[in-house]
Design goal:
322 residues, alpha/beta, Arginase, Chain A, eight-stranded parallel sheet, two-stranded antiparallel sheet, 11 helices, 16% strand, binds zinc ion
Length: 322
């Protein structure tokens, strides 16, 4: 079994945005460069992402919306719905491939071919609503992966941990009414997109299966680790997820231009180790992590490098003995 598989495609580079836009292809190039220098790129198993089919995306997004993203992308450069969400001719394929990568990762991790997975793709996904592109996001990548895992019938309970500095309003909304996906987010508040207050807890059968941890600007490594080891761990120990998905944004990094938090690259490694320990205890180490935000190129690259190193670590001895 591979301890970590990376899902990647050169097509992620061809989602082009205007000069100066923070969510640029340079983010992935910077990460790849760093992983090359550390030797990690050669070490991990890599899988070329496949493009998700329309009907696979339509599980969350109405066909009219998918068509609109495709048509706007073909006419690009253009924006979809929101001024910050730009597309180019290559964007639709890139967006389908990020979704497809998530579905492949679900198959590979649930079947035991890989213990953990990282989707090194863009555009990100946690702000995308079923019929609205926003916050640089076109399709709800993490939510689609979670739905795919549920529909495969192999898992009843999935936890999504979102530590991007922004609240994942899209993911929250998609699972607000279900108890089969537990959405937990830690994010700067107030900040874009404005959601993520503690009283947003779910509705109907989903009531109590959304938890938000809004944080004032300026919080650092230990603050985030304390939440993961405290209330997040408490929730997961009771919920007992069979698969953990991480919306791994790195824009809570101390140098990030879009956030005002103080996490270091080492902090992201500590947070990852905590998640890994929980996953080892609860679900045989099954974690799939999705790149969301992160806009300081060097800070992003170093943080992802350390995130992956921690994800790839073998199972801890305690859980092997259980
Ligand atoms: Zn973000």
């Amino acid at each position: 079994m591979n301890s970590l598989t990376l899902y990647w495609s050169p097509d992620f580079i061809h989602h082009e945005v205007s000069v100066g836009h923070p969510e640029s292809a340079n983010r992935l190039l910077s990460i790849r460069d760093m992983l090359g220098r550390t030797g990690q790129w050669e070490t991990y198993q890599k899988v070329e992402a496949r493009a998700a089919a329309f009907d696979e995306i339509a599980v969350v997004h109405p066909i009219e919306y998918i068509n609109r993203v495709e048509q706007t992308s073909q006419q690009g450069p253009a924006i979809v719905d929101s001024a910050d969400t730009e597309v180019s001719v290559g964007s639709f394929l890139a967006a389908r491939k990020v979704v497809g990568a998530g579905l492949q990762a679900v198959e590979d991790v649930l079947s035991g071919r890989s213990r953990t997975a990282f989707i090194l793709g863009r555009p990100p996904g946690h702000h995308a609503l079923p019929s609205l592109a926003m916050g640089f996001c076109l399709f709800a990548n993490v939510a689609l992966a979670a739905d795919y895992a549920r529909q495969a019938g192999q898992v009843e309970r999935i936890a999504i941990i979102d530590w991007d500095v922004h609240h994942g309003n899209g993911t929250q909304e998609i699972f607000f009414g279900t108890d089969r996906v537990y959405y937990l987010s830690m994010h700067q508040f107030p900040l874009y997109p404005g959601t993520g207050k503690p009283d947003e807890k779910g509705i109907g059968p989903g009531r109590g299966y959304t938890r938000n941890f809004p944080l004032a600007a300026g919080k650092g490594d230990q603050d985030f680790v304390d939440i993961l080891e405290g209330p997040v761990a408490d929730v997961l120990m009771v919920y007992k997820p069979e698969l953990i998905l991480v919306s791994a944004g790195f824009d809570a990094h101390e140098y990030d231009p879009l956030g005002n938090m103080n996490i270091t690259a080492e902090g992201f490694e500590m947070m990852t180790r905590t998640m890994k320990r929980l996953a080892d205890e609860l679900c045989h180490g099954k974690i799939i992590s999705f790149l969301e935000g992160g806009y300081h190129l060097d800070g992003l690259a170093e943080s992802v490098s350390r995130h992956l190193a921690a994800l790839a670590q073998e199972q801890s001895s305690e859980s092997i003995n259980q």
